[in-house]
Structures are given as structure tokens and as C-alpha cells.
Amino acid sequence: MIKKVVKSYDYPLAVVYILLTIFGVIMVYSASMVTSIQVYGYDDPSFFFNKQIVNLVISYIAFLFAAIFPYKILKSNKILVTIVAISLVTLIGLQFIGSNINNATSWIQMGTRSFQPSEFVKLGIIIYLAAVYAKKQTYLDNFNKGVAPPILFLVLASFLTAIQPDFGTAFIIFATGAIIIFCTGMNWKNIFRLIITGVIMVVIFSPIILWKKDVIFTENRLNRIYSYLDPFKYELGDGLQLVNSYVAIGSGGWKGLGLGKSIQKLGYLPEAHTDFIMAIIAEELGVFGVSFVLFSLCFIVLKGIHIGLKTKDPFGSLLAFGISGMIGIQTFINLGGVSGLIPITGVPLPFVSYGGSSLLFLSVSLGILMNVGMFANYERMFLHSERKIEEIPNHIRSIPSVDR
């Protein structure tokens, strides 16, 4: 039994995850060694590297636990109620006790370390929607009963995240939920009704947005948009990050300047070890370094989609689609901001950027994906073959073998 379970795990997925996180730790050290002293005033250039090592060890333990923990237990009503309660309480509580970092009250300070609850919410939304819609498979064609109720939690969680304000994470939460809903198998009529409902809600809330436009569209947020449209016009202000990101990417070329030899990390590019770590990778390791990260993340996303397609259990299938979708969306938002394709939102690069909360919950998510894939492989390779043997008539199975 145990040997069959061990054989059923998707080891290439685990290997890519480990390689990508180790690569991330190396790049965090390279990108932050000067920043630690010059910007943050620490005496140790390996300050962020040491903290990320601790984050990585904790994340590996969480990944291993999630990989062996039967994912089907997550479908229980008690766990789902706990997820909803913790998500709403923490998101509402952030409005009062959240620490303001980079103009957003998205963090809870715990001594020398900080925790970002929205990372838990991203995973919680996936588990909740996957479980609820898996249970509603028999009446998904009923919009009021089978489709609409779970969406209230998705919309509320996205809204509470957006007003922190953290629009990047809010978009990831909402888009991930939309992917799960799209993959439930509901008919196109209900999908069309969801779109119409969304448009109506936008129209209804438009007067409120216009009324509170001075609160919502602050000067800082508008400057982000202006600097996105023309970063070189604001290169001494809000366009500083994007302009220096362009310089870093352009300087790397095919081979890069060499590991540890980045110029932009010497105080020119803010947040080089977090949101803009890909720019440093491009500068130091060139196309080859960028390709390694992109191929690794694409492999993880495509593996997740493959697991979702081959899993017969609706809950496991929706979990796989949701997790792979979340990783793919977060990757796009990060790279889009670094390259100037979309406005900068402060979203880290999955498994590579510095940060404990993001790495921890992404690792747990990948562990759950591994567990879903293991169950699917086990059922296909062993249970299916055992059922075939059981289907053989007894009088045939009782025939003695003859040595030839």
C-alpha cells in the first residue's frame, strides 16, 4: 500500500519546485546584499538571505505535510466554515490593526516578522469554491441555488482586499475564483448571467466610486498610472522603478553580466529582492536565467492543468485548476509590472521573490496539488487494475498456470 502511494507521486513537479525555490534564495541574496546595508541599515549583507532560508525550511515542511495530507478532508463543512471565518475576520481586522507597508494595510506585525493574511485568503478561496461547487455538481444548472451563493464570499473577500488597498492581490483572488467557476461545468447560460450580473454591479457602484473618487483615486494611485503610461516622464518619481527595470533587463542581454554583478541593485532599483527580482535575474543571468524561471513556472502551471484534467474527483479537479490558475495569474501580474505591460501592483514572483507569507502558502498550495495528483495516479495505476482483476470470472482465475 505505502509503496504504491509513494510511486504515485509526481516527482518531476516536486523537483522543479525545489530547484525554483533554491534558485530564488540565491537570487534573493544577490539582489539584497547591498540593499540590506545601504537601504535598510543592517550590518549583515546576508540579512534577507538568512531570513529567506528560514522561510524556505518552514515552507518545505508545510509542502511535505500538504503533499501527504489527504486533500479530500478539506471538503468537510467544519474546515470550510473555518476558512470563511478566518478570511473575513482577518480582512476586516486589517482595516483597524493592519501595519501600513508601501501605502497598504495588508500586513499584521508579529514581533520582528510580518504576516500577510491575503495569502491565506487566496488559498482559502480555492479550497472553499472547489469544495462547494463539487458538492453542487448535480444542480449547477440552477443559478440561484447552485451558482450564486458561493460567489458572495468571493466578491466580499476581493472587495475587502482591494480597500486595503491591494488591487493586485484582489485581482488574483477574484480571477482565481472566476477560473474555478468557469471550470465547474455549468452551462453557458449561467456563465452569461454571471457576466450580466457583474456588469449590473459595476453600474450600481459607479455613483459610489464617483462620490468617493478623491478617496479611491488618490494622488499616489494616479501617479502609478501616469508613470505606467509614460515612465520616462516620471523617472525621478513614480517611474523610477520601471525605468530602472528597463535598464536592468536591457543590460543583461543573452548571457547577463554575471551572478552578483548587477548594477541596478546598488540603490537604483527599489524592491530589487521582492517585486522586481526578475529584473535582477535578467541583468545578471540574461535570457538563460529568465528562461529557467519562465519554463519552471510554466511547467508547474501546465502540470496543474494536466492533473485537473485527469482527476475524476470534481473537488480534486477544481483544486488543481484553481491552484495552477492562481500561480499563472500571479506570475503574469508580476512580470507584467516588471516589463511595463501593466501597472505595478506589488505582487511578488511565485517561489522566487523574497517573502515568507507568499512562499509558505504557495508551497502549501503546491503540496495540495501534489496530493491531488497522487490520488489520481494511484486510482488510475493501481485501483483500476485491481478492479479489472476482480471483474475476471472466478472459474478463469482458478485455472492453474502452465509453464511453457
Automatic annotation (TrEMBL):
Protein task: Peptidoglycan polymerase that is essential for cell division.
Organism encoding this protein: Fervidibacillus halotolerans
Keywords carried by this UniProt record: Cell shape, Glycosyltransferase, Membrane, Peptidoglycan synthesis, Transferase, Transmembrane, Transmembrane helix
EC number: 2.4.99.28
Top EC class of this enzyme: transferase
Family to which this protein belongs: Belongs to the SEDS family. FtsW subfamily.
Membrane-spanning parts: 12-32, 52-71, 78-97, 117-134, 146-163, 169-187, 194-211, 276-302, 314-333, 353-378
Keyword Transmembrane: yes
Protein name stated in the entry: Probable peptidoglycan glycosyltransferase FtsW
GO BP annotation list: cell division; peptidoglycan biosynthetic process; regulation of cell shape
Compartments in which it is found: Membrane
